[in-house]
Amino acid sequence: MKMTMHIDEDVLARVMKITGAKTKTQAVKHALADMARRHKMKELFSQGLGMTPDELKAEFAPTAADQLDNHGLMVAEPQAPYGRARPARQ
Fold first, then answer.
1. 42 in a domain, yes or no?
2. pLDDT tens track of the chain, all 90 residues?
3. Number of independent structural domains in the chain
C-alpha cells in the first residue's frame, strides 16, 4: 500500500544504518516488524508466559519471510550476526 508519511529523517537514517536497510521502505518495514515483535513479547511476559522453552522457541523463531533478501528472494545462508565476523583460523 502506498501512503505519504512524515518521518524524522535523522531517525530514519539511524534505522537504516542499524538494520543495514538499503531503502527507506525496507527500514520502515523492519522497524514496524520489530515493534510488533517486541509488543508480542511484552504481552507474553506480562501474562507470566506459562510456556515451555520449546513453545517459546517456536513462537519467536524466524519465519520464512525473515529469510528473504532485499528483493524478496530466499536467502541460501542465514544472516551473519551483527558486528565483525571473526577471521577464519589457519
1. yes
2. 788 889 999 999 999 998 888 999 999 998 999 899 989 888 877 775 677 778 777 777 766 666 555 555 555 555 556 556 666 666
3. 1
The answer to whether the predicted template modeling score (pTM) of the entire model surpasses 0.90 is no
Contact 9, 28 (CB under 8 A): no
Residue 40 in any domain: the answer is yes
Length of the chain: 90
| Cα 75 from chain centre | 15
* Residue 70 lies inside a defined structural domain of this protein: no
Give the structural domain span for 51.
12-62
Burial class (CB in 10 A: 0-12, 13-18, 19+), 27: buried
